[in-house]
Amino acid sequence: MKITLISPTMYGRDERPIKTKRAFIPNLATAYLAALAPKHHEIRIVDDTVDEIDYKAPVDLVGITTMAITAERAYRIADIFRTRGAKVVLGGMHATAEPEEALEHADAVVIGEAEDSWPELLRDAENGRMKRTYQATGRESLEGLPHPRFDLVDPRKYVRMPFRKSMIIPVSTSRGCPRQCNFCCVGQFWGNTIRFRPAEEVVEEIRASRADTVLFADDNLLFDEERAEELLRALIPLKIKFFCQADTRIHRYPDLIKLLREAGCFVTFIGMESLNTEALKSMHKGFNQPEEYRNLLKMLNDNGINVYASFVLGSDGDTAQTARDTAQFLIDNKASLASFFVLTPFPKTELYDTMKAADRMVDPKWWQRLTAFQALDLGMAKLRDGEPNPRELRAIATRQFYSWGSIAKRFATLDPNKLMCLPLNIATKRKMDKHNTFLF
Ligand code: B12
Ligand code: SF4
After folding, report:
1. What angle do CA 104, 364, 437 make, to 5 degrees?
2. Which CATH architecture group holds 2-135?
3. Considering 53, 105, 209, 311, which has the largest number of Cβ atoms within 10 A of its Cβ?
4. Å from CA of 176 to ligand 2 middle
């Protein structure tokens, strides 16, 4: 069959799909789906942020990956392909959370991870008996996953970090998270356990890709110290640079931080979420201790690892002052990058159920709005009275963190690893000046 795999973009403020010349990183789900399909199929990967979708090209089956903020775009693409006679399959985080909704726009929906169900679906589609839903089998082992097909992607359409030769490729080494933060959908999707891939298979995948820069797509690369040590040691000979996610406890393991640097980590994304203990408790994230953040930032900075601090604004009690204090804390403690996310009730999360029960969303189906701007405002508008809405809080914190004064203070260093984040800061500052946002 001729199969097209699409990762959709989002709609922008002008209600048009957001397109860019160069995207940050190719999509991992479509690259996996391509690898999982038997060889006799003819596969194209389309990244809607950088590619134009050719609705006229002959195609038998279209697979589209979904997140909440890309769902509306996914549905519109699906509707067009279906009117042209192609079969459409939806999968991923959002289709799994809202399969009934997805089925209104698709011939089939794949619920959960697709390693077993996608090949089965393809067999059924070839035999003209595709079912409406395919459910993940709940496989326990991650051994033997195929290498994602990034060879089907045009590397010129993706960003390269300064002094690096390849695009950044996403690599997943584990799935799931045993924690249960109330805003997070990882548990309901992947389960509240963590499964690891064998370290040697991860190394082989990176070696075969020839990439020199990697983004580890794990929710927490260092969740298990012993496994983290084994993996990091195995990565050293590859001489790659990588981004990863870790949690706020890692400063308790100084040897692991040294190893992290040795293995090539140059940015660690950390979900600090809030400086307010009460807000953290309400997120079920009491394991984050704000009084430890200073030391955490210092230890990573001392080892030349850039901290990408992630905060959530919009919890009850968050004010414009909270946004300013958070940004100032990160400036004083020299975080290299920061994201201030809007507390968002993603479907099938505990936060979603709580907000719905309390009638605090203007529109409980906010993701069906055309633009992410509209969607987030409608998702959150009734959060608090009197204070700027969470999106404005995010703008306050982002503008302050990416001001010239802040950049000068945070990058007064000669460490080349740290300086690699300077261009990203300048680009974000420019985007903020121009659009008052750096995301949508
Ligand atoms: C890595 C990552 C990123 C990377 C993207 C890397 C990439 N390009 O591949 C970066 C940092 C760029 C990123 C950005 C964002 N992310 Co993100 N990200 C993740 C993370 C940690 C892992 C995703 C991943 O690669 N998993 C491994 C792959 C293989 O799994 P998968 O995509 O789910 O695909 C499997 C199945 O779902 C299925 N499948 C998927 N699609 C399809 C389609 C078909 C047809 C079929 C049959 C099967 C199928 O098959 C795959 C193999 O089993 C997840 C959390 C998580 N653990 O899932 C958050 C997550 C997906 N991100 C999230 C969000 C919100 C974002 C941002 C919007 C954040 C922001 N505000 O900027 C942006 C959006 C950017 C964009 N436009 O795409 C949310 C989505 C919530 C939701 N319900 O929609 C998540 C779940 C985080 C969370 N805890 O809430 N992200
Ligand atoms: S936010 Fe991070 S730590 Fe919390 S459940 Fe999600 S993945 Fe796990």
Report:
1. 100
2. 3-Layer(aba) Sandwich (3.40)
3. 311
4. 9
Determine whether the shortest distance from the Cβ of 222 to ligand 2 is under 6 A: no
**159-343+381-435: CATH, from 3.40.50.720, 3.40.50.10490, 3.20.20.70, 2.30.180.10:** 3.20.20.70
Is the pLDDT at 127 greater than 80? The verdict is: yes
Domain spans in the chain, listed from the N-terminal domain onward:
2-135, 159-343+381-435
Separation of CA 143 and ligand 1 centre (Å): 21
Distance CA 408, CA 429 (A): 12
The CB of 398 under 6 Å from ligand 1? The reply is no
Looking from the CA of residue 148, the nearest atom of ligand 1 is 29
When pLDDT is cut at 50, 70 and 90, the band that residue 157 belongs to is very high
Q: Over the stretch 83-114, which tens digit does the pLDDT of each residue have? A: 999 999 999 999 999 999 999 999 999 999 99
- Percentage of the chain with pLDDT > 90? 78
Q: Which helix (H) or strand (E) holds 380?
A: helix 372-380
In whole angstroms, give the CA distance from residue 367 to residue 376: 8
C-alpha 29 – ligand 1 centre gap (Å): 8
| Nearest ligand, measured from the Cα of 178 | 2
For residue 158, the SS3 value is strand
- Sort 40 into a burial class: Cβ within 10 Å, 0-12 / 13-18 / 19+: exposed
Instruction: Tell me the pTM.
Output: 0.96
State in Å: Cα 32 to ligand 2 middle.
23
**Which residue has the CA at smallest separation from atom 37 of ligand 1?**
92
Q: What distance separates the 2 farthest-apart alpha carbons in the chain?
A: 63
Cβ within 8 Å of residue 242, ≥6 positions away: 213, 214, 215, 216, 235, 263, 264, 265, 266
Distance CA 336, CA 356 (A): 36
237-279 pLDDT per residue, tens: 999 999 999 999 999 999 999 999 999 999 999 999 999 999 9
Distance of CA 81 from the midpoint of ligand 1 (Å)? 23
273: left (phi over 0), alpha (psi -120 to 50) or beta: left
Strands 195-196 and 174-175 turn out to be antiparallel
- Ligand 1 pocket residue status of 206, Cβ below 6 Å: no
